Description:
alpha+beta, Alpha-Beta Plaits, SH3 type barrels, 2 domains, 5-stranded antiparallel sheet, 4 helices, 37% strand, elongated, zinc, metal-binding, Asp_carbamoyltrfase_reg_C, metal ion binding, Asp_carbatrfase_reg_C_sf
Amino acid sequence: MTKVELKVKPIENGTVIDHIPANKALQVLKILGLPKKGTNVTLAMNVHSRLGYKDIVKFENRELAHTEIDKISLIAPDATINIIRDYEIVSKNKVRKVNELNGIIKCTNPKCISNTEEPLETKFYLVDSNPITVRCHYCERLVQYDEIYNQFE
C-alpha cells in the first residue's frame, strides 16, 4: 500500500492561523466573519500534529487587525498567526493571552452603562480561560463563552 500525502496549495498573500484547538476552526471563521464572497478560505480540521490534533485556517489577500487577533485568543489562545507575502512567511506570531478586552464584545446586561451611554467602549477582564469567562468592568456581570460566541453571529 502506498502512502498518500494530501497537499494544500500555498497562498501568495494572506494569513494562516495554525495550532487552533481541534474542532474550533469554524468558530474562528465565525469570529472573523468568514467566508465572505471573494475571499478564498482553506480549512483543515483534526489534523494530526506532534502535540495531538489541531485545526488550520488560511485565507488569501487579508491580514488580521489586532482586535481580530484578540477575538481569536478567546477561542484559540495558543494559535499561531502567520502572515504570507509573495508565498513567504514574513511574520509568525503566537496569539497572546488577553487579560483585558476593550471594545470587542458587548455586555449581556441590558442595564449596563456600556449599553446605555454612547460612545462608551466596553471593557472586560478575563476571569477564567477554561471555559472562557469574562467580567464587565462597569457592572461586573460575568459573561460566559456561549454568550460571547453568540455575539459574533
